[in-house]
Amino acid sequence: MARKRIATTRWDVVHHLQTDEQVAAYLEAVLEDGDPRLIVAAIGDIARAKGMMQLARETGLTREGLYKAFGPNGNPSFATVVKVARSLGVRLSAQPAVWPAAKRTKRAA
Q1: CATH 1.20.1250 corresponds to the domain 13-94
Q2: Who contacts 22 (Cβ-Cβ below 8 Å, separation ≥6)?
Q3: Helices marked H in the chain — which ranges?
Q4: What is the 3-state secondary structure of 68-95?
Q5: What does the domain layout of the chain look like in residue ranges?
Q6: How do residues 34-73 score in pLDDT, each as one tens digit?
Q7: Which carries the bigger pLDDT value, residue 1 or residue 43?
Q8: Which of 19, 22, 36, 107 suits 91 as a labelling partner, its CA being 20 to 30 A distant?
């Protein structure tokens, strides 16, 4: 019996970052997770959604440099992250963290 092939397409979050609200919700969710690599990847996704050429012009960074910094193996400086976030119209923010009791005890020690 021959298996029927199912046609699929590659899902890309960039296609779902069309409004400022969508961008903010995506970045907020990633910031809540707290994984630095995921945060860098999300900012790269947002940058691709907004347009790397325009972002390069606004930040004074090269398009290639942006792809490298926010790509899978990227490790941008915090200054670059802040500059790009500002140019993208997003703000990184801080709130008091609610830590589980075990982590709270370790942090206080």
Answers
A1: no
A2: 16
A3: 20-33, 36-50, 52-59, 63-69, 78-88, 101-108
A4: HHCCCCCCCCHHHHHHHHHHHCCCCCCC
A5: 13-94
A6: 899 999 999 999 999 999 999 999 999 999 999 999 998 9
A7: 43
A8: 107
